[in-house]
Amino acid sequence: MTSAASDQPPALADRFGRLLRDLRISVTDRCNFRCRYCMPREVFGPSFEFLRRDEILSFEEITRLARIFASVGVRKVRLTGGEPTLRAELPTLIRMLSAIEGLEVTLTTNGSLLAHQAQALADAGLRRITVSLDSLDDTVFRAMNDMDFPVRLVLEGIDSAVRAGIAPIKVNAVIRRGVNEHTLLDLARHFRGSGHILRFIEYMDVGTTNGWRMDEVVPGSEVVARISAEMPLVPLEANYRGEVAQRWAYADGSGEVGVITSVTQPFCGDCTRARLTASGELVTCLFASHGLDLKASLRDGSSDADLERVIRGVWSERDDRYSELRSEATRDLPRLEMSRLGG
Ligand code: SAM
Ligand code: SF4
Ligand code: SF4
User: Which of 83, 114, 260 to mutate to test the pocket of ligand 2 (most atoms within 8 A of CB)?
Assistant: First the structure.
């Protein structure tokens, strides 16, 4: 039974009045892809030291924190990573989180293992999923994931998710100038009319290892103009305050696409997202240099009330708005890597 509106947990506001509504939980820092914009293999190679098992939060620890976050107003958790489907027994975690009243559970995945896992994830209660797929051109995609992983298996994963009842699906594509920009129209044509929602993400300067350059960013406005020239688009209202994607509908009613313009049109003013790293750090911005260690409190006998006090303290002090401040002056600031943060 869902609570009446008056029974909803009190919202927790930061220094700019932004409420804590979403929590992205990284369940592993490992990945079977080496996307060059996220985990370049020169850095994340054989000698890279990933987290040890005992450094990663257990399902019980994650669920305990999620319950506390829900009690201070979080409505949605997104499991991510690294590649979340690499985490053993992921459906068990989905089941545990889905049992928390008032909390919606979603997952972001590269789709590589979905063909095998979709049914178990759906059986565990997963109803919504985002699959990352940067191109339908096999050569381009294999080079972008730098694992020679074929498009076909990701598309099979999407089909399996649909068969398991997880739909509509959101499909995320990061567009890089000179890398996959020439294939964005193919993606739009493919997913138009499918019921799935394709979203183009501007390439971001997350972390410090991907060699990001502004001239590799394809602005969302350009993506919209290119699609609209062939398949006319009209703007749509946001579904809710804080939605990261700008929504556009095909004028002929054949569906919608989105653009996530974190670089060219930042949306920090509506950012209601916190992140929990696989090792239990609470991070309040995608571009943060560090987080606050909740694992220590989880493991030192602190009560739920103690943990809630810590979370309230961190969020109420939050004043992050990196994307609005992005400039030469912020360029060399230390930043956590996306694979560690949970994208
Ligand atoms: N491995 C899963 C996946 O790829 O969907 C989940 C984690 S991944 C870090 C989450 C999202 O972040 C993906 O959609 C990915 O494309 C996006 N991402 C990673 N690095 C990025 C960057 N530098 N700029 C924009 N998006 C990025
Ligand atoms: Fe892995 Fe996702 Fe990062 Fe690609 S974007 S390297 S799939 S974590
Ligand atoms: Fe939120 Fe930080 Fe991104 Fe701004 S830069 S939208 S505060 S995560």
Answer: 83
Task: Report the separation in Å between the CA atom of 195 and the middle of ligand 3, taken as the mean of its atom positions.
Answer: 29
Identify the helix (H) or strand (E) that includes residue 120: helix 114-123
The answer to whether the beta carbons of residues 145 and 34 sit under 8 Å apart is yes
Second-level CATH architecture of 5-341:
Alpha-Beta Barrel (3.20)
Tell me which of 216, 338, 340 to substitute to probe ligand 1's pocket, judged by most ligand atoms within 8 Å of the beta carbon. Answer: 338
pLDDT at site 61? 98
Q: Which two tokens stand for residue 30?
A: 């490992």
- pTM: predicted TM-score of the whole model, two decimal places: 0.95
DSSP class per residue in 147-178: S---HHHHHHHHHHHHHTT--S-EEEEEEBTT
**CA–centroid distance, residue 285 to ligand 3 (Å):** 5
Burial-class residue 290 by CB neighbours within 10 Å (0-12, 13-18, 19+).
Answer: exposed
Q: Ligand 2: which atom is nearest the Cα of residue 174?
A: 5
CA distance 297 to 70: 18
What residue segments make up the domains of the chain, in order of their start?
5-341
Instruction: State pLDDT tens for residues 162-183.
Output: 999 998 999 999 999 999 999 9
